[in-house]
Amino acid sequence: MTATRSFVVPLLRIAGPVALARLGIIGMALVDTIVVGQLAPDELPHQALGWAPTAVFLVAAIGLLQGVQVLAARSIGEGNKKGAGVALRRGLIVGLIAGVLSAIAMWVAGERLFTVFGIEAHLAGPSTPVMNILALSIPLHLLYIAGTYFLEAIKKPGISTAVMWIANAVNLGLNLWWVPEHGAEGSAWATVGARVFLAGALLICIYLLRDGVAFGVRKSKDAKGPSYGGLLAVGAAAAVSQAVEAGAFSAMTVIAGRIGAEVVAAYQIMLNLMALVFMIALGLAAATAVLVSEAIGRQAPHDAARAGWTGVGLNAIGMLIAAVLILAFAGPIGRAYTADLTLSALIASLMWVAAMVLLPDGTQVVSASALRARSDNWFPTFSHILAYAVVMPVVGYWLAEHQGMGVAGLLFAIFWSSVLSAAVLLARWWAIANRPVKAVVSAA
């Protein structure tokens, strides 16, 4: 009888560094929020609104690159290591094009991105330059993401983690230098500077990999791997899904902005806190995608199923622990975010709602990653459209504005939408986890 393979250790070995890297990404946003909240608290609404459209474009483009991770890992599972390098090179080109187009779209739209949704001129005006500056960082961050997905696929995530945390130190230094004089705009320029370092340092590290030739990092005439069509088949669905989700969360920021400056500041801080914990789920989701993709490349669907369920289980444990911790430290967390005592007290009072969101939100992202690793690309997208584009903004608008619940109403809307998404995706995974998957599309 064949022994059952455990995926707990392999998942944690990948997920640990990946989660730390993802925490580093949100760590930059955390530092931006805290430094602005402490040194220029009146500009927190401008920072929050400046990030809202930026997040939509950035997250959508990151989704477009998910094919690098999935198909590079699958190429390795098929015994074609150089295919991972092909995926990287093509992913860098896709990321650069997507990033430049995103920045141009934001500059052209300008203040209209806020006023069309009812944001008043006194908030929209100062928020627009923040958004325009942040747009410059999008192509840089996408180059980093393409490189990171490649390193995760070849199971060397520690490199991108180290680069990310050095970039966090750069970001902190630039924030402390520029925010006192330039406020939210100074924080946005700090993000640009940190991402210049981030992209450059990571690409140099990848080029100098000791086994870079084996993985096809430096171009090889005989290398074959995922085509642009193959990458986009995975990435387009993920991009739509993540754009819808990010757009829905940005719409919730707009709802908060319609209510008032204090509400939008509190909502931004609560989102930042939940995103910090969500990076753990993203780490587990990335590790799950790599192991499921490798198993599919080996034509081992039962191993893929076990890897997926293991990721879901480990996420549940992690999210429950995180929920207990933020409840235990609700007061200190609120005070750490802002010097405004009224705002910090409001934040602390909302921690129990945020704690409820963590488990279903983490579950849906791990489940979606497992499904995409099996080439079930569009089901998670339609699930996210239903939960986050249809249900969440409607419920959030009704609870926050019409029922007068403010930030708590927005958080409850996130909770119920995440429960819906997680339930649908888990049901889908249970139904198809053991099915075989067609081979990856490759090209010279």
Automatic annotation (TrEMBL):
Source species: Candidatus Viadribacter manganicus
Annotated transmembrane regions: 12-31, 51-72, 92-110, 130-151, 163-180, 186-209, 230-257, 269-292, 304-329, 379-400, 406-427
NCBIfam families: matE
Keywords: Membrane, Transmembrane, Transmembrane helix, Transport
GO molecular function per UniProt: antiporter activity; xenobiotic transmembrane transporter activity
Domain of life of the native organism: Bacteria
Pfam families: MatE
Protein's name in the database: Uncharacterized protein
GO cellular component term, pick one: plasma membrane
InterPro entries: MATE_fam, MATE_MdtK
